[in-house]
C-alpha cells in the first residue's frame, strides 16, 4: 500500500486566497484525521471522520476552515479566506477500526506545508 | 483532552537503552496509553500502545505502572535513527491529542 497520500506537499499563497489540501487515506481504513502542527501550538487535532461522517470538529479553529469526506478514498481541508496565522504543516492520518476502545494505529501522511504571506 | 506529562528533552548514548517516562495521573479505567514518535520533517509514527499489561513489539516495550498513573517507553538499544520527538498520549476515545512531546537526542 502506498500509505496516506497528501497534496500538495508545499503551498505558498497570499492572504485572502482559498487553500484546499487533499488527502487519500489507506484503503480499508474507517477513520480519517486532520491535524495541524506549528512550533507554538504543537500538533493539534482539527477534525476526524468515521466512515466518511464528521465525528468531532471541535478543533477546527473557526468558520474559515471546513473539511469534507465525499467518499472513503478522499478528503479535503479548505481554508477560505486564508490568513498568515494559518501557516503550518497540515497532516492527514487514517486508521482502521479495532475491537478495542480508541483508534487503532494512526498512519500519517507526509504533510502539507502551508505558507500564507 | 487528557493531559500527560513528559520531560521536554532527553539525551541518550547510541547503543544503550533509553527509558522515556510519562505521567498520566488522571487516567481512567478505559483509557489507553499510546506512544508515537516524529522524526524531523516527517509525520508522526506509531510506536506502541497498551491498557494495563506491559507490551512489547519490534520497536519498543511499554511498561505500565500497576496504578496506571505512569508508564515508561523503553527503546532497548538506541540508534541515531531513534532521535525524534516522542509523544505519550492518554485517551479513551478516538481523539489522540498530542502534547509537546519529549525531544530525544541520541549521542554517537
How would you characterize this protein structure?
The complex is a heterodimer of chains A (117) and B (108). Helices cover 0% and strands 53% of the residues of chain A. Chain A starts with a strand and ends with a strand. By secondary structure, chain A is an all-beta fold. In chain A, strands 2, 4, 5, 6, 9, 10 and 11 form a seven-stranded mixed sheet that branches. A four-stranded antiparallel sheet of chain A has the order 1-3-8-7, with no helix packed on it. Chain B is an all-beta fold and 108 residues long. In chain B, 0% of the residues lie in helices and 46% in strands. Chain B has strands at 9-13, 18-23, 32-38, 45-50, 55-56, 61-64, 70-75, 84-91, 102-107. In chain B, the strands form two sheets. Chain B has a five-stranded mixed sheet with strand order 1-9-8-3-4, with no helix packed on it. Chain B has a four-stranded antiparallel sheet with strand order 2-7-6-5, with no helix packed on it. In chain B, a hairpin with a 6-residue loop joins strand 3 and strand 4 (45-50). Chain B is globular. Chains A and B meet through strand 4, strand 5 and strand 10 of A and strand 3 and strand 4 of B.
